[in-house]
Structures are given as structure tokens and as C-alpha cells.
Design goal:
The chain is α+β, with helices and mostly antiparallel strands. It is 17% helix and 23% strand. The chain contains 2 helices and 2 strands. It has a two-stranded antiparallel ribbon with strand order 1-2. The mean pLDDT is 87.
């Protein structure tokens, strides 16, 4: 993995801990950033996660795929 991929944070200033396992995502190659919105309040909340962990809790038919760019 390149340093750039390891450091990717998306629209937040630093990588967030995995919202499922609570562990660091600093060296995770499957890091994903999830945005939750509440249109009625016009607010946004960001969650970091390991894609593998997200896939473990999604409903059947949904899957997170990580594509290295």
C-alpha cells in the first residue's frame, strides 16, 4: 500500500476509528468513510470503518467494495 492510500481520510481531517470494532484504521487497506445525513436538520455525521466489518452487519444483498485507485 502506498503512503497516500494509508493516509487517505476522505473529507475529514484524520482517519476515524472503526465504528463497529472500535479499533484503529490507521493501517487498514479496506478503510471506508460513511456519511449519515439528517435532511430535516441539515446535519452530517461521519463514521470510519473497516469494509469487512461493515459487510458483516449489512442486510443481505448489500456489500461494500473497496477499489484501490
Amino acid at each position: 500500500m502506498t503512503d497516500e492510500r494509508a493516509a487517505w481520510t476522505g473529507v475529514v481531517s484524520e482517519r476515524l476509528r472503526c465504528c463497529i470494532c472500535g479499533q484503529s484504521t490507521d493501517d487498514a487497506s479496506d478503510y471506508v468513510l460513511i456519511e449519515m445525513t439528517a435532511p430535516s436538520a441539515e446535519t452530517r455525521q461521519w463514521f470510519g470503518a473497516h469494509a469487512e466489518h461493515v459487510n458483516g452487519v449489512l442486510a443481505e444483498g448489500f456489500q461494500v467494495e473497496v477499489h484501490m485507485m
